[in-house]
Amino acid sequence: MNRKRLIGMGALVALLIAAFTTKGFGLLGGGVAGPLKLYGNVDIREVDMAFRVGGRIISIAAEEGEKVAQGEELAILDTASIDARVNEAEAGVAQARAQLAKLRNGNRRQDIGQARARAAAAQATLREAEQDVARRQPLVGPGAISRDLWQQTLATRDRARAQLSEAQQALSLLTAGSRGEDIAAAEAQLQSAEAAKQSVSTDRGDARLVAAAAGTVVTRAREPGAIVQAGETILSLSIDRPLRVRAYVAETDLSRIAPGMKVQVTADGNPRTYRGTIGHISPRAEFTPKSVETENLRTDLVYRLRIIVENPDNALRQGQPVTVIVTGARPPAKS
Predict the structure, then answer these.
(1) CA distance to 90, 94, 203, per residue, from 87 (Å)
(2) Architecture of the structural domain at 46-77+207-239
(3) Other CB atoms within 10 Å distance of the CB of residue 146
(4) Peptide bond preceding 242: is omega within 30 degrees of 0, i.e. cis?
(5) Are 73 and 203 in contact (CB under 8 A)?
(6) What confidence score (pLDDT) does residue 191 get?
C-alpha cells in the first residue's frame, strides 16, 4: 500500500514539473514580463567629402583621426582660373547694365538737336529744288531750256523730298526713344549676365571644402598639389553624433517593443552601460544578417530597429557589436 502511494506521489510530482516547464503542455502562454535581449552593431555613418569643382589642391588642414566641427574648413583649391572667370563675369554684368541704362534714358539732347538740324537742312534743300521747278517749268514749252535740264531739275526735287523724309524719320526715332522690346531684351541680357556671375561666384565658394557635420576624419585620400576632378573624394568623415545602434528583433518578439522604449546598451570588454531609446522600427521584415548573433535560427525573420544612444563616449565605436537589453519589454504574447 505504501509502495503504491509512493509511486502515485512520484507520478504527481513528475506531472507537476512537466506542466511547469512546458507552461501547461503548451496550453498556457508565458504572459510574464521580463527583459528582452537584442543584438546589433553601432551604425557606421560616413560622408565622402569632395569639391564640386575640379582643380589643384593647395592645402588640406585635417589629418586622419582628427575631430572637426561642422562648417570647419578642411581643404582649399587654387582659384586663379576661377578668379579670372569672376572678373570676366563682372565685366559682362557691367556692360549689360550700361546698355540697359542707355535704352531706358533715351537719346541725348545733342543727338536730337543734330537730327532736327539735318531735317531743317533737308527742308531748305527741298524748298530750293521746288523753286527751280517752278521757275523752269514755263521755259520747257517754248524750248528755252533743254529737255535734259528739265529732267535733271525734276530729279533734284524728288531727291530732296526723299532726303527730307529720311531726316524726319530719323528725328522721329530719336524723339520717341527706345522701343519696349529693346528694353526687355536688354533686361533679359542683364539677368543672363548676373546669372553667369552668380554661377562663377558659386564655383569660387566651392573651392573651399568644409565639414558637412561634426565628426572624425577617417580617411585622407588626397594630398596638397594633386589635381582632382569634381566629385573626387578628398576626405572621408565619420559622423559621431547622434550615435545610433542598428539592432534586430525576432518576429515573435516584435509585439514586446515600441518606439520610445528605454534600453540599455553594452559592448564586449566595455564595463560601461549606456542608455538609449528605440527610435524607429522597420515596417518590413528581413532575414537575420550574418553579422548579427541571435539565439534563434538564422533563417528566422527579424525586424530592424534603430536605437539612439543618449550618453555615448569614445569607447563606443562605429561598427562595434553591442547587446541591447529592453528592460521594459511587454510580456510575450500568449500561445
Answers:
(1) 5, 11, 13
(2) Beta Barrel (2.40)
(3) 11
(4) yes
(5) no
(6) 93
Distance (Å, whole) CA 49 – CA 74: 9
pLDDT tens digits for range 6-16: 555 655 555 55
Residues 6+ apart with CB under 8 A from 266: 272, 273, 274, 322, 323, 325
CATH architecture, range 31-45+241-326: Beta Barrel (2.40)
Query: Which of 49, 83, 58 lies closest to 210, judged by CA?
Result: 49
Assigned C-alpha cell, 217: 576624419
What is the mean predicted confidence (pLDDT) over 275-303?
A: 69
Alpha-carbon gap, residue 158 to 164, rounded angstroms: 10
pLDDT digits 0-9 by tens, 183-232: 889 899 999 999 999 999 999 988 999 998 888 898 899 999 999 999 99
CB 309 within 8 Å of CB 35: no
Place of cell 529744288: 129
Is residue 230 within 8 Å of 51, Cβ to Cβ? yes
